[in-house]
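Can anyone check this?
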Amino acid sequence: MKLKNILIVVKDIEKSRVFYHDLFGIDLVLDNDGNMVLTEGLVLQDEKIWKNFLEKDILSKSNSCELYFEEQDIEGFIKKLESLYPDIEYVNRLMTHSWGQRVIRFYDLDGNLIEVGTPV
């Protein structure tokens, strides 16, 4: 068995596609009317589709999972993030773990948790 994709729910699929492209260089592979498959195995799904399928409310900022990225030039990434998305909500600004890894955590446009850290 092989894990193929990670799906996250978004309110504005086009804005989210641009967000993930601009910050992480993730590109569109397939646009299937409310579902976008991106490179790196990320799938965006329109909130209306997901909510209809589950018949439950979507919990933004549930803090139950995160997307994790590694970036050697974390200061450069933070400058890009602050420039493109100055109103982004941070969970924590740049910090250093006891094992030496530097990380930043923030929410995407829909409250999905993202961590960007230096390679370990």
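Reply from J.R.: I decoded it. The chain has two domains: 1-58, 61-120.
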